[in-house]
């Protein structure tokens, strides 16, 4: 089963909330990028208390693009956050993060940035709930997919035949199709969805239905 998740990458809560409302009728999950400028060249909205008070039935995955995510992790462990994504490159406390998330019945995904070898994920593939390949430089939305990441996806799928592999970055109907063929089963997209005049159609295009 292929899942398409809209990604929101914004500097202010006002814009984050506006985009949440745009996709809310059409999806189950929303991907929220948070960044404090330690791992990325830019700062994005990163206040968990805004999300805590948002009335919604959506499930959120929080992509923590920041160094030492274990420091801020507890604030994100709230009822409507169902998955935390942390980067291998940003922490030495991966097992602690896994334990904390699972103690709160929250899924955890381990991500690698564009330059990082897929092999670092091998020891963790059965300890986390999902693996993520970030296929653009960490930071802003609207970047172009870097095709060398397809080989990472293929290798990871060979080592994880039945698990979730998410691809984030530069996803449009063509690149999503390539990622799915390589073995991805969760596609995260921002620009193609939010720049489209018809969100259900955008989701269908990414899924390969149109």
Automatic annotation (TrEMBL):
Protein name: Ribulose-phosphate 3-epimerase
Gene Ontology BP annotations: carbohydrate metabolic process
Molecular functions per Gene Ontology: metal ion binding; racemase and epimerase activity, acting on carbohydrates and derivatives
SUPFAM superfamilies per record: Ribulose-phoshate binding barrel
Keywords noted in UniProt: Isomerase, Metal-binding
Species in which this protein is naturally found: Candidatus Sungbacteria bacterium RIFCSPHIGHO2_02_FULL_51_29
């Amino acid at each position: 089963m292929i899942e398409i998740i809209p990604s929101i990458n914004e500097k202010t809560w006002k814009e984050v909330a506006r985009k949440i409302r745009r996709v809310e009728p059409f999806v189950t999950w929303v991907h929220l990028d948070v960044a404090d400028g330690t791992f990325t060249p830019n700062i994005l909205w990163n206040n968990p208390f805004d999300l805590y008070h948002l009335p919604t039935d959506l499930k959120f995955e929080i992509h923590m693009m920041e160094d030492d995510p274990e420091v801020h992790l507890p604030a994100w462990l709230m009822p409507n956050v169902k998955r935390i994504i942390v980067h291998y490159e940003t922490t030495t406390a991966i097992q602690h993060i896994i334990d904390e998330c699972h103690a709160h019945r929250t899924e955890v995904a381990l991500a690698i940035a564009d330059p990082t070898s897929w092999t670092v994920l091998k020891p963790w593939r059965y300890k986390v709930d999902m693996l993520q390949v970030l296929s653009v430089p960490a930071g802003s939305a609207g970047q172009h997919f870097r095709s060398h990441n397809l080989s990472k996806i293929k290798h990871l799928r060979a080592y994880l035949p039945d698990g979730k592999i998410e691809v984030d970055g530069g996803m449009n109907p063509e690149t999503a199709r390539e990622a799915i063929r390589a073995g991805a089963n969760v596609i995260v997209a921002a620009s193609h969805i939010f720049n489209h005049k018809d969100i259900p159609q955008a989701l269908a295009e990414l899924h390969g239905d149109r």
